[in-house]
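Hi R.,

As promised on Friday, here is the backbone we talked about, encoded as structure tokens. Could you run it through your design pipeline when you get a chance and send me back a sequence?
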């Protein structure tokens, strides 16, 4: 066997060792890059998620459910109207199927959520009552990244709602959520079928005007007395029909529902003397419902 010179042996082994060291260095560089990538991903995964739509139940800023008098709850449950219960049962399944869970309204980028609460004197009075509560008109949700803009107008009718929202959009950017509590003032002034058609049409229109905004329908409250008719039973039937039509449209466009079941049965302590507006306790309950939603 021919002898291999020492220089040739060292020359042959040199490149091999160099290739091994190069591959090892490359592997170490890859592992280092992966480690750096992982270190960047971990803080993002562990970053706190800020609320973007729904406030957590029990948030500060109002009365808790436990503070409502027991007699009020008993009265409300004992006097539940048959039509109201039928309406709620009919919508429960749809609400669960179409309403997004609260975490879908949150964002992980720390952006603030803008909420408009628009409606008639019920909204106006609730906004005024919120001034004297802990958390103020923000309902204590400012720390959750939620900013509320109260827009309550006494006597506002649903037929004027779309124009009002278009007007408001001239002064503020489109919000993340619009809570609508409007329509009771139309009952008795506008023919029922015409009102139902208008509710369906205008809610679809609003969904197209505010494509990136989630609409929330706040159920019209029962009334002890109605201004435009003494036939309370017929007026309540119309109110239920309006709520049913609005709820169907809202769910169809990916919106949400805000119910106020404490007012079923019309507990007297929740209403003012006129039987239309809410008492101090009624306003507190209404605000609690908004806060927990």
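Update: got your reply. Pasting your designed sequence below so it's all in one thread:
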């Amino acid at each position: 066997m021919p002898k291999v010179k020492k220089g040739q042996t060292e020359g042959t082994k040199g490149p091999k060792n160099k290739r091994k060291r190069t591959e090892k260095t490359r592997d170490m560089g890859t592992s280092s890059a992966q480690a750096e990538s992982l270190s960047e991903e971990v803080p993002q995964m562990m970053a706190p998620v800020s609320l973007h739509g729904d406030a957590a139940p029990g948030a500060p800023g109002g009365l808790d459910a436990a503070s409502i008098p027991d007699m009020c709850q008993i009265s409300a449950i004992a006097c539940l109207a048959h039509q109201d219960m039928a309406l709620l049962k009919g919508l429960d399944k749809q609400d669960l199927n179409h309403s997004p869970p609260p975490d879908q309204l949150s964002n992980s980028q720390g952006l603030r959520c803008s909420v408009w609460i628009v409606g008639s004197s019920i909204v106006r009075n609730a906004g005024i009552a919120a001034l004297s509560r802990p958390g103020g008109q923000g309902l204590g949700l400012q720390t959750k990244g939620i900013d509320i803009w109260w827009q309550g107008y006494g006597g506002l009718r649903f037929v004027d709602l779309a124009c009002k929202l278009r007007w408001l959009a001239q002064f503020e950017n489109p919000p993340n959520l619009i809570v609508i509590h409007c329509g009771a003032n139309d009952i008795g002034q506008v023919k029922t079928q015409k009102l139902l058609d208008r509710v369906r049409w205008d809610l679809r229109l609003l969904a197209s005007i505010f494509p990136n905004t989630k609409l929330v329908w706040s159920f019209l409250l029962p009334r002890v007395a109605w201004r435009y008719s003494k036939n309370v039973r017929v007026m309540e039937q119309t109110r239920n029909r309006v709520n049913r039509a609005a709820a169907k449209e809202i769910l169809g466009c990916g919106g949400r529902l805000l119910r106020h079941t404490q007012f079923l049965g019309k507990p007297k302590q929740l209403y003012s003397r006129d039987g239309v507006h809410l008492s101090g306790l009624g306003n507190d309950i209404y605000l609690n419902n908004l806060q927990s939603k």
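One thing I noticed while checking it: The radius of gyration is 30 Å.

Thanks again,
M.
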